[in-house]
Design goal:
With about 100 residues, this protein is mainly α. It contains 3 helices and 2 strands. It has one domain (about 5-90). The protein binds zinc ion.
Length: about 100
């Protein structure tokens, strides 16, 4: 089953951009949840990966990512994903419920 959560994805709209490559950043306008395109994160033919497998990127960075070759794209996305996770946990946007 693929995990879907619109409320979680919406956190991107008020989050900073976590792209680490040079670009004209529009993160101040809010970001997009950029889904992984790797099978290991649940991506399939005509099927988006799990909603937890997203990196928060501004619209410009998100578009630039789509034009990278597969290897660059995966490594770049993974770095942004880790930064997104750090942000989500350190800011308290995600919490463990006891
Ligand atoms: Zn950006």
């Amino acid at each position: 089953m693929t995990y879907r959560n619109r409320s979680f994805l919406d956190l991107a709209h008020k989050a900073p951009c976590f792209a680490d490559f040079p670009h004209e950043c529009h993160g101040w306008q809010g970001c997009d949840p950029a889904h992984s395109d790797s099978q290991i994160f649940g991506r399939g033919h005509g099927h988006k990966s799990n909603d937890w497998a997203v990196a928060f990127l501004c619209n410009t960075a998100h578009k630039m990512l789509d034009y990278m070759d597969r290897e660059d794209k995966q490594a770049t996305w993974l770095r942004a994903f880790v930064k997104t996770q750090n942000y989500l946990w350190e800011s308290g946007k995600l919490k463990v419920v006891k």
